[in-house]
Design brief:
The complex is a heterodimer of chains A (about 260) and B (about 160). Chain A is mainly α and about 260 residues long. Chain A contains nine helices and no strands. Chain B has about 160 residues and is α/β, with parallel strands linked by helices. Chain B contains three helices and eight strands, in the order ααββββββββα. Chain B has an eight-stranded mixed beta sheet, with no helix packed on it. The chains are: A mainly alpha (about 260), B alpha/beta (about 160). The interface between A and B is medium-sized, with 32 and 28 residues.
């Protein structure tokens, strides 16, 4: 009984300490961002790694999510004779929920895991320690540009996802299922509000960008400097990011649209 | 990868993202609808507007010619003041036009429908539509129907007594 209790206690304390280290990393990341103004090259390189290379998976997923939404929505809506509302349904679900959330989930899998592995390997090969020896803060020099790139890329990726998704929905709804094109756009335009829906969707994706990149960078920075440690850290990045995104999405939706 | 191409691809990425946002703002959200604010506003007083909402369409012969801009309550008469934004400035609408609140389908959205009158003067900024008809309230109709039914039954019962 006693060793079991002790191991449980150790695990709880470990988790709390990890949480604390994660929070302590955040101020460093933030101050690092403010110093990026003088060195935009660093940011551009990271936006390329994090954002540009995610475009393909984001747009292809967006296309198919939009197409499936239109197909499934038409099936339900046509039962109530409300197939004209298809555009509204597709756009509302994409702009408010699916756009930011699915983008963040894909981002965690595509970019977050890569960031963790990269930072973890830098730590394992003692590149971060070498930077410190040269009196360069690795948090400012290595982590912050990646953090800023994640925050910049996520809303743009979410916007691309949503736009491509709406077009996919248009293609299936109007092209294949024969919903009236005017009704498709008109219903969307009269019901989707710029600030309330689109603005809040973008705020969501900004929050997800911060959280996903933060988790990925922290896991890499905090990983055990062994091959097994890096693999564990990468796994944790994807799991924790996905859970954080889904949990935060509920909270944000309740704050923005509920009540 | 060379710095030049790298910068280029990042630039393209940012432009793509901005374009997507612009597309969403103009084509998907209501910005494009609100942006067209030319035209003029007229007022209509309704006894009851049912569940008419701001931005509901205003139609004439089934064609959308404007939208509901604002809804408020008159402090003295306790009637609903519905401000209608008419977008189509070419159209000369007679000022004795009859405004009625319709429901699209049985459970659909409510909208304002115009039935044009024959007056030679036409509506302009700030004119007031005096001929209006309130929204059809389904529960009131059902209530009335039940009331009539009960009345019929009572009448049916009392008749034989009078005959005697």
């Amino acid at each position: 009984m006693s060793p079991w209790l002790a191991s449980l206690g150790r695990r709880v304390l470990d988790t709390l300490a990890r949480l604390g280290r994660g929070c302590l990393l955040l101020p460093g990341l933030m101050t690092g961002i403010t110093r990026l103004a003088g060195r935009p090259r660093l940011l551009v390189r990271q936006v390329h790694a994090v954002g540009v290379r995610s475009i393909l998976i984001i747009s292809v997923s967006g296309l198919f999510v939009g197409m499936v939404l239109a197909l499934q929505g038409y099936y339900v809506l046509s039962r109530f004779g409300a197939a004209e509302s298809l555009g509204l349904m597709v756009a509302a679900s994409l702009v408010r929920e699916l756009g930011p959330v699915v983008t963040a989930l894909l981002f965690a899998g595509r970019a977050g895991s890569a960031l963790t592995a990269e930072i973890g390997l830098m730590k394992t090969t003692e590149q971060l320690a070498a930077l410190e020896m040269m009196a360069v803060d690795p948090v400012h020099r290595v982590l912050s540009p990646r953090f800023a790139a994640g925050i910049v890329s996520m809303p743009l990726l979410a916007a691309i996802f949503t736009a491509v998704g709406v077009m996919g929905g248009y293609f299936v709804g109007v092209g294949l299922l024969g919903v009236d094109s005017g009704a498709f756009w008109n219903q969307m335009q009269t019901k989707i509000e710029l600030g309330q829906d689109l603005g809040n969707g973008m705020v969501k994706s900004l929050v997800f960008g911060v959280v996903c990149t933060w988790i990925a960078l922290f896991e890499g920075h905090d990983s055990d400097p062994t091959p097994a440690g890096i693999s564990q850290a990468t796994t944790r990045t994807v799991i924790h990011s996905s859970l954080a995104v889904l949990g935060l999405d509920f909270v944000l939706t309740a704050l923005m649209f509920g009540g | 990868m060379q710095t030049r191409t790298l910068e280029l691809t990042v630039g393209i990425f940012v432009v793509l993202g901005m374009l997507a946002l612009f597309f969403l703002a103009m084509q998907v959200s209501n910005l494009g609808v609100i942006g067209r604010s030319e035209g003029y506003r007229v007022m209509a007083y309704f006894e009851n507007i049912g569940s008419l909402k701001v931005r509901a369409p205003v139609t004439l012969a089934g064609v959308r010619i404007g939208r509901v801009a604002a809804i408020s309550v008159d402090a003295r008469t306790f009637e609903a003041i519905v401000t209608l934004q008419i977008d189509n400035t070419q159209l000369k609408i007679p000022d004795d036009t009859f405004a009625k609140i319709y429901t699209a389908g049985l459970l659909g959205e409510q909208f304002v429908g115009f039935s044009p009158g024959g007056s030679p003067t036409s509506l302009k900024e700030g004119s007031r539509l005096s001929l209006t008809q309130s929204a059809l309230m389904l529960e009131e109709i059902i209530g009335q129907f039940l009331f009539n039914k009960a009345g019929d039954n009572k009448a049916g019962e009392s008749k034989p007594e009078q005959m005697r």
